[in-house]
């Protein structure tokens, strides 16, 4: 059965002719029953919902109250119809709140992406490190993203309220079915019970559809927030350096579902690293102050993750071999700082810390402290 044909859209035209509801009994419907049929309406033209946007859940108008029959069963029908009308009102209100939440979320996301686009364009052209204008824009973008995140909490609350409607719908449905077994009913009572059961079944479908859309919105927005927070972290590192790196490495790192092997990232690198014949992906030589290695490191790691999304990395601090104990101690201290600086740069670029391990080694060929990056 096409559920869309049973429920008119909110804000639609109510001029379409009524559609006859299936009967439980063979007696022709009365005039009161025909007056109680819900009307079908098409979606309003020029609706703001795009083809890609989540479909707005339809709602049904409340039919006219049936004529009382004066029987016990008729009184039960009136009671149950009152409960159903209350359920309908709650669903209409919840549907309206969902559409309002979507509209607010869209506006917040548009402002967020507009601010991020302005920052990216300025970094693309080149700017000074730590430009205060870009810092203020970054703070504004973070505030807009927080507004989007706050909307997720409201959607979770709405989902709980919609799920609670199922209990009321099940009560009305079971009570209307049980009323068929009561004695002292007239034919009109059974016709009204049949209508009540059909309308309640439609309400159950509407509850399921509305709850499904809310849950999908929550899952989609949660993933969106996590990804954009990672991108903001990477953007903050780019503003600090005054040059654009690119999108967060986390998106590439989590491109596959298989979890990678986790490695320790303690502040003290393990010694005695064995490269096993591997060629380092990147060699960073700290032979002068303020070595600008971030962009080259980002480019090499991002290209690796494009080819191997589940790749992990070893950061190896290499120091020159020396027989002087004081020189060895000084080089060890510097090597530890340089290795941790490279690790922090990778994390700022969005690389999960669980995919990076630290190690240290000596080399007779090294003339200064170096950090080698290996693919594991």
Structural summary, described in words:
There is one protein chain. The chain is an alpha+beta fold and 376 residues long. It folds into two domains: 3-241, no CATH class; 253-375, 60s Ribosomal Protein L30, Chain: A (2-Layer Sandwich). The protein contains seven helices and four strands, in the order αααααβαβαββ. Helix 2 (72-125) runs antiparallel to helix 3, helix 2 (72-125) packs parallel to helix 4 and helix 3 packs antiparallel against helix 4 (187-241). Mean pLDDT is 76; it is low at 1-54 and 255-264.
Query: Strands of the largest sheet, in order across it?
Result: 1-4-2-3
Number of helices: 7
Secondary-structure element pattern, one letter each: HHHHHEHEHEE
User: In total, how many beta strands?
Assistant: 4
Instruction: Give the number of domains.
Output: 2
- Gross morphology: elongated
Strand-residue proportion: 5-15%
Mean pLDDT: 76
Contiguous runs where pLDDT drops below 50 for at least 5 residues: 1-54, 255-264
Using only CA atoms, what is the Rg? 33 Å
Structural class: alpha+beta
Main beta sheet: 4 strands, mixed
N-to-C CA distance: 55 Å
Helical amount among residues, as a percent range?
Answer: 40-55%
Keywords:
alpha+beta, 60s Ribosomal Protein L30, Chain: A, disordered N terminus, single chain, 4-stranded mixed β-sheet, 54% helix, 2 domains, elongated, 376 residues
């Amino acid at each position: 059965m096409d559920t869309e044909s049973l429920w008119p859209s909110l804000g639609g035209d109510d001029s379409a002719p009524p559609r006859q509801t299936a009967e439980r009994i063979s007696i022709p419907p009365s005039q009161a029953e025909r007056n109680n049929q819900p009307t079908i309406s098409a979606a309003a033209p020029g609706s703001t919902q795009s083809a890609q946007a989540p479909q707005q859940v339809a709602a049904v108008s409340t039919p006219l109250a049936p004529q009382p029959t004066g029987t016990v069963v008729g009184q039960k029908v009136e009671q149950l119809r009152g409960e159903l009308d209350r359920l309908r009102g709650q669903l209409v209100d919840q549907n309206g709140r969902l559409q309002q939440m979507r509209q607010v979320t869209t506006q917040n996301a548009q402002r967020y992406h507009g601010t991020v686009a302005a920052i990216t364009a300025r970094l693309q052209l080149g700017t000074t490190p730590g430009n205060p204008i870009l810092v203020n824009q970054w703070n504004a973008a973070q505030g807009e993203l927080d507004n989007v995140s706050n909307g997720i909490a409201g959607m979770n609350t709405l989902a709980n309220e919609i799920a609670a409607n199922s209990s009321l719908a099940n009560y009305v449905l079971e009570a209307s079915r049980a009323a068929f077994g009561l004695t002292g009913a007239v034919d009109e009572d059974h016709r009204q019970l049949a209508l009540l059961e059909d309308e309640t079944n439609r309400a159950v479908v509407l509850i399921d559809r509305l709850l499904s859309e809310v849950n999908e919105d929550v899952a989609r927005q949660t993933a969106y927030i996590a990804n954009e927070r990672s991108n903001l972290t990477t953007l903050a590192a780019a503003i600090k350096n005054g040059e654009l790196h690119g999108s967060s490495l986390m998106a590439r790192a989590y491109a596959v579902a298989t979890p990678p092997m986790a490695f320790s990232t303690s502040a003290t690198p393990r010694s005695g690293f064995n490269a096993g014949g591997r060629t380092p992906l990147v060699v960073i030589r700290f032979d002068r102050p303020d070595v600008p290695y971030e962009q080259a490191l980002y480019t090499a790691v991002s290209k690796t993750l494009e080819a191997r999304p589940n790749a992990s990395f070893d950061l190896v601090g290499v120091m020159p071999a020396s027989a002087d104990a004081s020189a060895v101690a000084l080089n060890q201290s510097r090597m530890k700082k340089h290795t941790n600086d490279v690790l922090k740069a990778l994390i700022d670029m969005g690389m999960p810390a669980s995919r990076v391990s630290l190690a240290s080694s000596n080399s007779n060929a090294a003339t200064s402290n170096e950090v080698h990056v290996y693919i594991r």
